[in-house]
Design goal:
heterodimer; A: mainly alpha; 16 helices; about 0% strand; B: mainly alpha; Four Helix Bundle (Hemerythrin (Met), subunit A); 7 helices
């Protein structure tokens, strides 16, 4: 660790992993509720479990992004963080607010929570993914502003690099787009229209900048390839990301009452969204092949390569599957969407946060570059267990989705929703088994921080470097 | 035959060691951009095949004279860019900057003319929702319009660096990079103009 203040990243990473475990736990409950409808009812009804599952995902990824920024920015800016104290304060505010919100979801009926938090003053609740009470949303804005101030001041006062600038633009965009969660028009078409400005422009816009910059940072550090080369790629990738991603918002506007031209705009531009992801894959493998040294933290390099591949598959390929308007006419809102959602979130955002944690955690825990060999072996097991099981979850949900589309919307004699749900139950069972394997992988991941932590640090094997 | 071809390739590469000109990254970007336009053009052709009469009817409402003028403006700008690259290759930074600024000015002229066309359309109540032809016409030309702006920004950045004596005969990749992008913007218009304005 080059700068003392990078240490503030550690609690953020620990909280992220903790909430990740919670997310998967609720995912398992939720998956079971697909086949045993009254499982845990009335304590944890389906809608609550789903809300907790998705909200925890967002919150822990945000913890991960913030931790990544606090670790990365001082090293890029070549100076201490502007205010480590502020970073720690914001950590606790965010954690307590997040925990209270989740407890609110679990302990109080949702309408009661709305009443309790004075939602009527500025109504923002009741919309998918933006279920948080208004007061929590305000808290998120405060935390985001303080965080941006802290990061921004550090960058402004220090060395400005493409990596930190792209990261800053991404984080700024994240905060700005979130403001649309406060806009809640009565007109349902308008409501959905702007709702996507948060949801879509986050994951298919500004978050990709965050992803790109973190990936670039880790590749610079682990491969030793010239910064200039990596930064050039970063620029090309983010330019393509923004061109395709921003207008690609149109693929959500096909059937919500927006003008018809969105069917063309959305289809054309979002069909091209896989390109920047493909570039990212080529870029990551290219850089690793051109590496000037073998980094002793092999697990971190594995995560980085995994991100590049899985983001392309999950976000790129599985997104393309149902992005064209004539296809989406049949598939929207089916299990095809769920399949894409799972692999895209895992491949792009879960994996990039885990990449950063894998790279930074050894230094945050007092190592010079890497954890012990034993620890890395367990971590790489967790990589494969989680990655392979998410592939299976995605395949099973895709199978469920195709069958669902056919039975419910395409066949000459369409069946009702719930009848179809019964007929595709087999896929849900298989998905649940894959989910359980994912949990095993996650437990292995957590264990990797404790296994071999007293062993000596792993060292690079000199012989197998391509460039050496 | 094959030997002659190989000779040509070899001579070509010897004559121009830096091939393709400019940075490889810009070529990846150019290819991606061309793919976007290609898909857009294909979608246009697909949509037109179903309603050729409607397309022909509304195509007649476009102002072909101003579009031809704009074509000439872009071709001229590309010529200026070529002169700028030659100047940079010869180590004359000041001259390079002047040619590039002239190209930027021609780009500006294009924008002004195109904006006046848009103003006429909007005054006539044309919008993206008017009909499929106008949807494509406005989308394609506006998407290209944005590329002209981006190309001008790139050329201006190169011109500023040239003005500060930032290039040399040995190292002027930046000029060739900017020039490559600008020629792409020009070339797309050379397809767009006949396709949308002229072909029936």
């Amino acid at each position: 660790m080059q700068y003392q203040s990078q240490a503030v990243a550690k609690p953020y990473f620990i909280a992220a992993i903790g909430l990740f475990v919670g997310q998967i736990l609720f995912g398992l409950i939720l998956g079971l509720q697909y086949v045993i409808g009254d499982f845990m009812f009335p304590e944890i009804p389906f809608n609550v479990a789903r809300m907790v599952h998705t909200n925890l995902l967002i919150v822990w990824l945000l913890f991960g992004f913030m931790g990544a920024a606090y670790y990365l920015v001082p090293e890029e800016a070549e100076r201490e963080l502007f205010s480590p104290g502020l970073a720690i304060l914001m950590f606790w505010i965010f954690l307590v607010a997040g925990a209270l919100t989740i407890l609110g979801y679990l302990l109080v009926p949702y309408s009661g929570l709305a009443e309790l938090t004075q939602n009527s003053v500025l109504p923002t609740m009741g919309r998918e993914f933006l279920e948080q009470p208004t007061i929590t949303k305000l808290g998120i804005v405060v935390v985001a502003l303080a965080f941006l101030f802290n990061i921004g001041m550090t960058i402004l006062k220090g060395r400005k690099t493409a990596v930190s600038l792209v990261l800053l633009i991404g984080l700024l965009g994240l905060a700005v787009m979130f403001l649309f969660s406060f806009y809640n028009p009565d007109n349902l078409a308008k409501d959905k229209y702007y709702w996507w400005w948060v949801v879509h422009l986050w994951v298919e816009g500004v978050w990709e900048l965050i992803l790109g910059s973190i990936l670039a940072f880790v590749l610079i550090k682990t491969t030793g390839v010239d910064r200039e080369v990596i930064e050039k790629w970063l620029y090309v990738i983010i330019a393509m990301t923004l061109i395709t991603g921003i207008i690609g918002t149109g693929h959500h506007y096909y059937w919500i009452g927006a003008p018809e031209y969105w069917q063309w705009w959305g289809s054309i531009f979002s069909a091209l969204e896989p390109i920047p992801f493909f570039m990212m894959t080529v870029f990551a493998f290219n850089m690793v092949n051109r590496r000037r040294r073998n980094h002793p933290n092999k697990a971190a390099v594995l995560w980085a390569m995994g991100t590049a591949v899985m983001a392309f598959l999950g976000a790129g390929v599985w997104g393309f599957l149902h992005t064209l308007a004539p296809i989406n006419y049949y598939t929207h809102g089916t299990q095809i969407t769920a399949a894409h959602g799972h692999m895209a979130f895992y491949g792009a955002y879960v994996m990039i946060v885990l990449t950063m944690i894998s790279y930074a955690m050894p230094m945050l825990r007092g190592r010079t570059a890497a954890p012990s060999n034993r620890s890395q072996v367990v971590e790489m097991w967790s990589f494969w267990l989680m990655t392979v099981s998410i592939v299976f979850i995605t395949l099973f949900l895709t199978g469920a989705g195709i069958l669902q589309v056919y039975l419910q919307r395409y066949s000459g004699d369409p069946l009702p929703f719930m009848v179809v749900q019964d007929k595709i139950a087999m896929f849900y069972w298989m998905r649940e088994v894959a989910g359980a394997v994912f949990m095993v992988g996650l437990i292995a991941y957590v264990a990797s921080f404790f296994v071999g932590s007293r062993d000596p640090e792993a060292t690079a094997v000199a012989g197998d470097s391509a460039a050496a | 035959m094959r030997g002659i071809l190989m000779d040509t390739v070899v001579r070509h590469e010897q004559a121009r060691p830096g091939y393709p000109p400019g940075d490889l990254a810009i070529w990846i970007f150019i290819l991606a951009e061309l793919l976007v336009f290609a898909i857009f053009f294909a979608a246009y052709a697909f949509a037109r095949s179903g309603q050729a009469e409607l397309f022909n009817h509304y195509q007649a409402t476009l102002n072909r004279d101003t579009a031809l003028f704009n074509t000439l403006a872009l071709l001229t700008s590309s010529y200026f860019v070529v002169r700028g690259v030659v100047a940079a290759r010869e180590g004359n930074n000041a001259l390079c900057a002047r040619w590039l600024w002239a190209a930027v000015a021609m780009g500006g002229l294009f924008l002004v003319i195109k904006a006046s066309e848009y103003a006429d359309h909007f005054a006539a109540g044309v919008s993206l929702s008017s009909n499929t032809f106008y949807m494509f016409y406005l989308s394609l030309t506006f998407f290209h319009f944005m590329h002209v702006i981006l190309g001008m920004v790139i050329l201006a950045a190169v011109a500023v660096k040239a003005g500060r004596d930032g290039y040399s005969p040995d190292d002027h990749t930046g000029v060739e990079t900017g020039a490559s992008y600008w020629h792409m913007v020009d070339m797309v218009w050379l397809i767009l103009f006949p396709l949308v304005y002229v072909m029936r």
